[in-house]
């Protein structure tokens, strides 16, 4: 006979404090593997030596797949297997300490107890609990020795994501919200909807003890490709039928929409959205995880460690070939051991949920050990060649003549890709540069040796590549050099002022004809609208430097700017009797500022006023103003406020109330959008007191 015990006491408060799970909000016990927890249930002292406990998970629990454990009482807890130790008993209840092994399968378990009395056996269900990875426990594959790092990479619900360009890094806050509401249940259901589970549920669940496996499966499930996963990517510049990727401020809304819609992919995401959602899911399950931004990130589609970019004679960036260089790309690092590769490859592992290239037939990427990327060990699992190229590929710029189909190399650069690799600091709202953990110093012999080693391992050294430039093409030297300098501020609503600086490198005069274009682009450098074009002819005296001011007016770009606020300015210089010179700059404009003040002291369960102030910086009206606010433990869900239109240079002040639900350092995220400015984001750190 089986009956459920409504009277099971799971000691929620004490257990969750011990297991670092007290931020979860439900009534169900959540514990971490390899660590004891206490449970009290009705029973008598007499037959306690006859208790047999059963812990089971998954669709077909079995001992062979380590998804079923039966264990009696023992005098001490075991490290290797499930065990139970009697703590105390009275005439009608028994308290037991239950321990799971360090390598237990994670997920939702059913716990029951069988007792035998007078030869009659009865089974009582004690209920369910959820078991997670345990980075605080030295026997766990995700063990992280620093508690400050555990707190940041598992328990912190706020993050900062870096974006922009390498010469102008910007950042915005994100609410991971891994402990809010129903997120844990949603994370568990993500795993049960993967292709891996659908094909073979029993094997899939039995592998959920392994962070490598869980990370790889989730990198495939966070994108919608192949498996109706969480987020649908869209890099077209047209986001009708969904939300613009730049408008999200947290993962909670995305994960909840996915569940509410009956698990239909949420529209739309771009790289930071995939990375942020994967951070939420992995932190929720107990795998230490962070987001990483790589600037000038290569997408090497054909695996030759080279990206080719094509321009026409007017300086327009052509979309030819599948290779591309993104102004930035965001992926994840998760922390765990690599028993399959050996100790030097343990630690940070790269996972990428953005659907870029297939791996094993589906869109998933990683885990690639960061150490293997640095050492050029591109033959190691998983997906090291793709990640290596993202931070190391050589860049080739070609001139393409569509009439003849002829392409001419303009120049090649081996120091362009993979710069200012960034992540949020532990315990502080600052940027930390981790480039040196990905590669040796750019241009050093060691770095070039590693690049050659990777090429060799990929079989590129010995293979003739008809698309590669000839040594003669690579060695040709230009007669002039050029660069764009920013003159003045980079702000939406203001004119964009640049200087084109041209230098004659030779000791004889050079006649130069320059064709210039400016296009609004996505952050992936995909051209969307032409904004401006111009040309000029000049003769440069020997060794002369000349500067040409360029002004692109606000009214020229305003209608055409994408929500990435990015403009690519290109000058192709045709030098008489010499090779062409390409001058290029990707500029990301900043939104105007928005100010947030908390008016008074933030206390648990007490209302406090917040004021948001925005001044319209342009000399026309702004309409359709909407303010979105969210923050874990500060307000439930997302607060959306409509704000009346603002006249030229008018200031608006909006007040609202929040009621903090938990003490400690918290972050309020604010996003302001109107018809002239998309997604002005800021965050406010506040300390909530009891």
UniProtKB/TrEMBL annotation:
Any GO molecular function: metal ion binding
Enzyme Commission identifier(s): 2.3.2.13
Residues the record lists as binding Ca(2+): 392, 394, 442, 447
Top-level taxon of origin: Eukaryota
Positions of the UniProt region annotated as Disordered: 1-24
Composition-biased stretches (Basic and acidic residues): 10-24
Positions of the catalytic residues: 271, 329, 352
Annotated cofactor note: Binds 1 Ca(2+) ion per subunit.
Domain Transglutaminase-like positions: 263-355
Keywords: Acyltransferase, Calcium, Metal-binding, Transferase
Keyword Metal-binding on entry: yes
Cofactor: Ca(2+)
Record has Lyase as a keyword: no
Catalytic reaction(s) noted: L-glutaminyl-[protein] + L-lysyl-[protein] = [protein]-L-lysyl-N(6)-5-L-glutamyl-[protein] + NH4(+)
Listed transmembrane segments: none
Similarity annotation: Belongs to the transglutaminase superfamily. Transglutaminase family.
Protein name, per record: protein-glutamine gamma-glutamyltransferase
